[in-house]
Amino acid sequence: MIANHPPRPFHRLAFILALACLQTAPAFSQSPSIALSIDAGHVKGPVSPMLYGLMTEEINFSYDGGLYAELVRNRTFQDHANRPEHWFVHEGAGADASIKIDRTTGPSEALPLSLQLTTRTATQKGEAGIENEGFWGIPIRPKTKYTGSFYAKADDAAAGPVTVAIISDLSGKPLASSTVPVAGGWKRYDFTLTSGSEPTSANNRLRISVNKPGTLWFSLVSLFPPTYKNRVNGNRSDLMEKMAEMKPTFLRFPGGNYLEGDHINERFEWKKTIGPLVDRPTHPSPWRYHSSDGLGLLEFLGWCEDLKMEPLLAVYAGYSMKQEYVKPGPDLEPYLADALDEIEYVTGGPETKWGAQRAKDGHPAPFKMQYVEVGNEDWFDKSGSYEGRYAQFYKGIKAKYPNLQIIATMPIKNMKADVVDDHYYRSAKQFYEDVNHYDSIDRNGPRIFVGEWATREGSPTPNFGAALGDAAWMTGMERNSDLVIMASYAPLLVNVNPGGMQWESDLIGYDALTSYGSPSYYAQVMFGSHLGDQILSATLDGSANRFFYSVTRGSKNGTIYLKLVNASPEAQSVNLKLVGVTDVAKTAKMVSLSGKTVAATNTIQNPTAIVPVESSISNAAAQFSHAVPAYTIQVIELKAK
Ligand code: AHR
Fold this sequence. Notes:
The chain is of the alpha/beta class. It folds into 3 domains: 11-47 and 532-639, Golgi alpha-mannosidase II (Immunoglobulin-like, Sandwich), CATH 2.60.40.1180; 54-69 and 228-515, Alpha-Beta Barrel (TIM Barrel); 87-224, Jelly Rolls, CATH 2.60.120.260. Helices cover 16% and strands 33% of the residues. The chain is built from 10 helices and 35 strands. It has a 10-stranded mixed β-sheet with strand order 1-33-32-35-30-29-28-2-31-34. α5 (333-347) packs across α6 (353-360) and α5 crosses α7 (386-400). The radius of gyration is 27 Å and the shape is globular. The N and C termini lie far apart (56 Å). Mean pLDDT is 94; it is low at 1-29. The structure holds alpha-L-arabinofuranose (AHR).
């Protein structure tokens, strides 16, 4: 477990403080060797209104132990076939008890097993019970209400009551506790725990204990802190707030490899992820840990709703990662039918079968959705079945939903896909060299969704060199966002505790208590917050060294968003020339993200080493010189008429 960290200010505060320290850019001294000519009278194309979004899947403990605010780990005891991992027996003074997984009894058909606590001796002074260590600790903050529940069965009517408590690992004392009467057959019990004024800590466990002999069985033991927008079964607030700052317009879910599973029977089966938690059987994920499916289809949609994102649903299309595939034709029909049901669950009115199910699950209003992706990374399918599978899904989905745009996960030869999903995991250098990738792509072909991309430098989260690679790549996507209609960095989240990460270089890191944005995250915040809706024509001349740009404009307010990336170790000066404008305000807002080295980074211990700093320039004009410091990403807002 990562050591406890003293409470530190939420990163937004650091950002605001940085904003408060308005600086004026250093006086320009060198003579510019590069020229950026902007023709504000020539709009090259529209900036896609959905250019920046999020891609998500269960990887790196993104949901369980991450965004999904559940604090109990392995709450249904399915992490390991034989052992109740993350659970321990508690034997107080003189107590004698044991725990084991019992596969013969459980609270539902979906959860047919339970944790059996057999207490041979226990007293008021020496209780016996079960303990859960949480996801690298159970985080507790002062004066906070925690909402919990569990299912239990008792061997006799007098077995209860049980004490539920959060116990400090350091003092052994309860930080919050409650008594719950337990008796008879399988039932759900609810409780709340309210902490006192002990300081914030994560070195805690959840304990459920008894003070007399007997046998109890438990399942679906759950404990939630307050969640974002107080959603029941909801998400962690700090992570939701960080994502909100990126101003994402869509959420691509549920994967990634998590959609496909290693095997067909381990795919994301959406129907098993809806409704009461006790009816969700959970499933093994390809990222080597078991998924609780607490964050199921409706929770993905709630996440979209909370952050005002449009769902971009990836439907399982008959390929799983161990080269298992379903032949196009009759064999694939049930999978297509399942995808159509899923689309109906998302978009159908309450008069439809699956829309009615969604209403029953708590959300009568349908969700707006324009894009559906068929599968994930199907170039891995060596059988070559994707052409046929895509065509069958395309036809089936369009027949019922003609307005949906159907994304292919690889180029399609025999028909024109609406959109093709390109993935790029690269070094910063590879991105610099390929920044013009989309400049000359045929505009009559499918539109492009860059559904996964990242500069993979830095671990667990990307360093400043990666942020430079990302920013350079984003300038290329923006300049071509008539074609590149959507893009989403991946992976989004990582639990930085030992064993938490399966994939290096993830945008946002966290432990049980705090979270931080990587430099790449801040680059995304800067780009996503200054987008505009028109791509302006611009050309760069001269001896630029790893210098990248994009120029867009907001047609409503006329603001020109100039993004400059100097990925070289030396300052570079640029002569900026704007034509097609009559007046440029002298003062312009500027946001800069700089690192002293490419290795510089943010960490869970030092979360705000690199954050955007707002300043202003006072020499903006139709022609002006501007110096961009070494290793710097800048956004300048030019007010031009
Ligand atoms: O983002 C991590 C993985 O990379 C995704 O699951 C997969 O689609 C890609 O190969």
